[in-house]
Design brief:
Layout: H1 3-14, H2 18-42, H3 46-72, H4 83-89, H5 98-122, H6 126-149
Length: about 160
């Protein structure tokens, strides 16, 4: 496991409540949106840049869905992710080239998916579980595209579990 995975796992492991788990999921999705936007600006070109920009939008929508769920459950969100959070979760990401950026984004998506699965096992709220499931489905789609860009095979797995 690399540092990105360990950092995300640690964030989820520290939480014991639906509120904390949902805030963690929101934070990771916000960081992912910033990371994709950063990769599009710095390391990627052409179609890969367009994919990263589109995925940044997807991650913002995922974060919006999780934010709505937080608000529906009357959970307070004190702060939102900023670029420094990308640096904290993915040290050195800004300086990576094309392949390194894509590999880091793949790891981020993989670890986020694993965290969301753990979250899904813990949630008491059925509405929150539905929201997390939709976010997970989007993340799984991102995994396939990132694997394809990196020429990794197989592109799909029978069960995406973040490993």
């Amino acid at each position: 496991m690399s540092d990105i995975t360990l950092r995300i796992e640690g964030r989820y492991r520290r939480e014991r409540t639906d509120a904390g788990l949902l805030r963690t999921a929101l934070h990771i999705e916000e960081v992912a949106a910033l990371a994709y936007a950063s990769a599009a600006e710095t390391a990627l070109e052409g179609e890969e840049r367009a994919v990263a920009e589109r995925f940044a939008g997807h991650e913002r929508e995922h974060a919006g869905a999780l934010m709505t769920m937080n608000l529906a459950l009357a959970l307070e969100v004190r702060r939102h992710a900023v670029q420094k959070d990308v640096d904290n979760l993915m040290p050195g990401f800004e300086g990576l080239g094309r392949r390194g950026a894509l590999e880091a984004l793949l790891e981020l998506e993989t670890a986020a998916l694993a965290g969301q699965q753990a979250l899904g096992r813990e949630l008491a709220s059925l509405d929150a579980l539905r929201t997390v499931a939709m976010v997970m489905a989007g993340g799984a789609q991102h995994l396939v595209v990132l694997r394809d860009l990196l020429d990794e095979r197989p592109l799909t797995k029978v069960f995406e579990n973040g490993s």
